[in-house]
């Protein structure tokens, strides 16, 4: 049996329970029926004996010289009408006046008569001439209370057994019907259980559960199961960590988990998605959703989450390095063009013009470097601004540093600063290119009181105030391709540093970021 499937074990157990229950119920019913039949027989004999003893005709017949001649027909008539097996009327000494067998008339009564002689009815089970019987004997009293005769009415045990057999047959039939119905119901329940458990045994189910628990707690990736109603039914440790969910998250609707709107909409959609990027408070997640169906019935969705934060940071740094490389390539190309120009001027015998041209180009490049380095003494930001300036120039956008910019090493995480300023500049350059020429971007960095202030303004078409909140959501972009991550990543880094980001309309859009300074910087 241990190798049987769970459904088969349950079927066998339920059949045993049904058989035992029906058998116990049948036995108890038989015993109770036996008691009830005996009680019913006692009540019938008592009623018949008392009725006969109370009949005036019986007391009058006792005055006749031959009481048997009058009492025997009466007793047989009452016996036939009431269904008892015998009615015996006898003298106080127990000599029979009546009996169903005429040969027994005049012979002594077999049974107990003392209680009846004392004036009270008495019931007992006794073996007489007709066999074992349940009988009641009661006195026949005259007006003065003197016992003139005794009346005994009885039903044989054989008769009672016949009635009991009838009840037993009905009880056994009901038990068999109950057993058949219970067995059929148990079989159908077993088939359903077999279908749901795929005919697996308890050992296999236990092992599957252990594997299930081990896998859920071992994998670093997040795993969610959402049913068709939008209720979270399963959440592993990785998903709790990535989404910041509480321990009792299972059983809650997705809308009540406090997730970002875009992620909540995705989990509630019930559709199939692959490797979508979504932002939470401090993470970049790669989310895939697969709908699960059984025939035409939707069972919900399986959601996998992967932490894309570190990869996104590396990608951002790679993009920056690629940008710097492109800027260097462009600068090298421009330098080559200028060098050819200088050489050509020298070959044409115009050395003064060659020197003047080379000096002017060197002065312009050095002036930009000096201005950036003088205004921004945070080396990482200074390098970023120089690189972005070259990139912007290559795209035909003038990137300038505001004259009042002044920023020292402020002790904030340089990776977050690069993410904020770099994404804001990239967004501003894109916006400026879509506006009317000349395309310009102005950057201001500095400190104001206890905060670091970064302001990036562009000459683009500006930003609709109604779309400000949308601009910080994943996938928003002014280009309309639905792949914008710059502003959301910048906003995420600002929130991570405990700062604020605002946007205002000027000639174009003006983004202002305020970041609280560390205490050591403020002091």
Automatic annotation (TrEMBL):
Q: Which UniProt keywords apply?
A: ATP-binding, Cell membrane, Kinase, Membrane, Nucleotide-binding, Phosphoprotein, Transferase, Transmembrane, Transmembrane helix, Two-component regulatory system
What's its EC?
A: 2.7.13.3
Highest taxon, organism lineage: Bacteria
Catalytic activity, as annotated = ATP + protein L-histidine = ADP + protein N-phospho-L-histidine
Short name of one Pfam family for this protein? sCache_3_2
The molecular function terms of the Gene Ontology recorded here are:
ATP binding; phosphorelay sensor kinase activity
How is this protein situated with respect to the membrane?
A: Multi-pass membrane protein
Q: Can you quote a single GO CC term?
A: plasma membrane
Histidine kinase domain: residues covered = 330-519
Q: Where in the cell is it found?
A: Cell membrane
Signal peptide (residue range)? none
The record's listing under InterPro entries reads: HATPase_C_sf (IPR036890), HATPase_dom (IPR003594), His_kinase_dom (IPR005467), PAS (IPR000014), PAS-like_dom_sf (IPR035965), sCache_3 (IPR033463), Sensor-like_sf (IPR029151), Sig_transdc_His_kin-like_C (IPR004358)
UniProt xrefs under Gene3D superfamilies: Histidine kinase-like ATPase, C-terminal domain (3.30.565.10), PAS domain (3.30.450.20)
Annotated membrane-spanning segments are: none
Carries keyword Methyltransferase? no
Q: What class of enzyme is it?
A: transferase
* PANTHER family found in the cross-reference section: SENSOR HISTIDINE KINASE DCUS, TWO-COMPONENT HISTIDINE KINASE
Provide the protein name.
Answer: histidine kinase
Q: Which organism is it from?
A: Herbidospora galbida
């Amino acid at each position: 049996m241990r190798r049987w499937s769970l459904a088969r074990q349950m079927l066998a157990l339920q059949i045993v329970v049904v058989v035992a229950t029906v058998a116990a119920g049948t036995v108890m019913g038989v015993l109770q029926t036996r008691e009830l039949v005996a009680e019913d027989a006692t009540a019938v004999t008592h009623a018949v004996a008392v009725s006969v003893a109370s009949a005036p005709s019986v007391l009058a017949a006792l005055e006749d010289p031959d009481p048997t001649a009058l009492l025997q027909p009466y007793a047989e008539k009452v016996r036939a009408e009431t269904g008892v097996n015998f009615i015996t009327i006898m003298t106080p000494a127990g000599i029979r006046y009546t009996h169903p067998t005429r040969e027994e008339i005049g012979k002594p009564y077999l049974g107990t008569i003392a209680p009846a002689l004392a004036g009270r009815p008495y019931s007992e089970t006794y073996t007489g001439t007709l066999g074992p019987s349940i009988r009641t004997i009661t006195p026949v009293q005259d007006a003065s209370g003197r016992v003139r005769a005794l009346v005994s009415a009885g039903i044989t045990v054989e008769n009672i057994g016949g009635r009991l057999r009838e009840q037993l047959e009905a009880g056994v039939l009901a038990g068999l019907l109950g057993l058949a119905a219970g067995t059929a119901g148990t079989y159908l329940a077993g088939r359903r259980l077999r279908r749901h458990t795929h005919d697996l045994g308890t050992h296999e189910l236990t092992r599957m559960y252990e594997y299930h628990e081990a896998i859920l707690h071992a994998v670093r990736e997040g795993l969610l199961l959402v049913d068709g109603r939008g209720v979270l039914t399963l959440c592993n440790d990785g998903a709790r960590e990535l989404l910041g969910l509480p321990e009792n998250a299972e059983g809650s609707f997705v809308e009540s988990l406090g997730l970002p709107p875009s992620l909540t909409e995705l989990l509630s959609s019930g559709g199939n998605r692959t490797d979508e990027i979504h932002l939470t408070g401090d993470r970049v997640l790669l989310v895939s959703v697969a709908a699960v169906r059984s025939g035409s019935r939707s069972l919900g969705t399986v959601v996998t989450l992967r932490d894309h934060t570190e990869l996104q940071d590396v990608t951002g740094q790679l993009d920056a390095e690629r940008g710097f490389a492109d800027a260097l390539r462009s600068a090298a190309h421009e330098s080559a063009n200028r060098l050819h120009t200088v050489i050509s001027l020298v070959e044409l015998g115009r050395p003064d013009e060659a020197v003047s041209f080379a000096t002017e180009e060197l002065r312009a490049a050095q002036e930009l470097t000096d201005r950036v380095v003088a205004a921004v003494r945070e080396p990482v930001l200074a390098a970023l601004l120089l690189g972005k300036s070259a990139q912007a120039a290559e795209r035909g956008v003038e990137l300038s540093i505001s004259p009042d910019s002044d920023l020292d090493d402020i002790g904030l995480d340089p990776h977050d600063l690069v993410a904020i300023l770099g994404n804001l500049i990239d967004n501003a350059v894109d916006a400026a290119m879509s506006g009317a020429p000349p395309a310009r971007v102005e950057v201001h960095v500095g400190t104001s009181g206890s905060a670091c202030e970064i302001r990036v303004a562009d000459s683009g078409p500006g930003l609709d105030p109604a779309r400000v909140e949308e601009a910080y959501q994943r996938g928003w972009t002014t280009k309309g391709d639905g792949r914008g991550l710059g502003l959301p990543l910048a906003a995420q880094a600002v929130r991570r540093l405990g700062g604020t980001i605002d946007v205002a309309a000027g000639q174009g859009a003006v983004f202002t970021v305020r970041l609280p300074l560390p205490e050591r910087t403020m002091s």
